[in-house]
Amino acid sequence: MTAAGFNSILCLRQLVRQNRRQFSAPAQSVLSGSQTNGHESPPSTAKSADKMRGWQLHNYGDIDELQFSDMLKIPQIRSSNECLVRIRSTAVNPIDLAMLRGYGATLLNKMRCQPGDGIEFPLILGREFCGELVQTGMGVSVPLGSRVWGVVPLQASVGSHAEYVAVPSYCLAPAPKELDDCEAASVLYAGLTAWSGLYITGGLGGPCGATTASGGGAHKRVLVLGGSGGVGTLAIQILKSQKVQVLATCSENAVEMVRNLGADLVVDYNNPKAMEELCKYAPYDIVLDCAGQGGQKAAESKFDFRQYITFSSPLLANIDKQGLGVGALKNVFDLVQTNVRSVTQRGGLVKWGFFSPAPQGIQFLQKLVEQRKLMPLIDSSYGFSELPKAFEKMKCGHLRGKIVVKLRDESGD
């Protein structure tokens, strides 16, 4: 990213910070927070009956299904690699809104329920956080009291829209000091989605790019569709840090912002003449669909590509509609049909990209933040009591970065 581009991001950051309360001293845990003995299973603490605040879901539906409670049980760590985190800030992502409506319920419920246990609710949504490590299993090396950032696996029934969350140790790491709590809570889910799409699905950096934090992809050419959203803004910065030529699309009023992220060419997707400009740079090594167009749109593109990677796959939706068996067959059929059209008309493959809580991906993103090559953009922030408003904002769409939710300033610290 150019110096001018990074300075522009810093200016945006300052504007956001002026409208947010600043965080100060580390939060004090209501738990004893002792690390479990290496010869014992992680015990229930003496205060295991203590409660926490959180937003629960008892039925799938619209935003009015979110129910606040201050009498929820604090999660207990149950294995040697688990960590209990007191959350300071979290975020609302498109996947949260989709899961609120029941997206992925068929498969994810199979993954989260114990054998013979068909209990699906209550659920707590939320996929990423920044907070304080208050308890760990015996196999965790991160010190207690550390400020950490992390993600919650999709199959977890207790997410980060509560005061505490328990996650495997590979899902978190010490938070970069370069970011405040809200910024740290707005990087990992979208960042790991972008990283996984580029380096695991797209193989941008070869085998090392997918299995290590080395990145890669210099001198490749990538088109980012939807460059102004949470995933798109981080994808552009990731690519530019690796010396990739980046082109991006967005709406007219976001063009300058996306250009300041370092994109080499930014076009308004509502301008047909500007979109034709993209044909001059084809074929693209990767077209990264962060705009929700889906693989079916790949063959309709006016430009050629080697890979078209979309995060809007029909995989979970097909299983929701037709069950595990028939849904899986439908997924295979859809992918084959889409690729036949894509290869025939545009010469490239369509692939499905997914969020992956890979520790090497977290390490890669942390390195970029520390090198000041990656800075999250925050569209808006809300207090914990306003979480339904954050969902309403997500529902309206056309975001310019991430939606964050602050817990700590309402926790009595």
TrEMBL record:
Task: For this entry, list what GO says about its biological process.
Answer: ubiquinone biosynthetic process
Q: Which positions carry the signal peptide feature in this UniProt record?
A: none
- Give the UniProt entry's GO cellular component terms: mitochondrion
Q: Which keywords has UniProt assigned to this entry? A: Mitochondrion, Oxidoreductase, Transit peptide
Q: Where is this region: Disordered?
A: 26-50
Gene Ontology molecular function terms on file = oxidoreductase activity
Q: Which SUPFAM superfamilies match?
A: GroES-like, NAD(P)-binding Rossmann-fold domains
Where would you say this protein principally sits, based on its record?
mitochondrion
Domain Enoyl reductase (ER), first and last residues per copy: 61-405
Subcellular location as annotated: Mitochondrion
Family annotation (SMART domains): PKS_ER
| PANTHER family membership | ALCOHOL DEHYDROGENASE RELATED, RETICULON-4-INTERACTING PROTEIN 1, MITOCHONDRIAL
Family of the protein in this entry = Belongs to the zinc-containing alcohol dehydrogenase family. Quinone oxidoreductase subfamily.
What's the protein here called?
Enoyl reductase (ER) domain-containing protein
Species of origin: Drosophila erecta (Fruit fly)
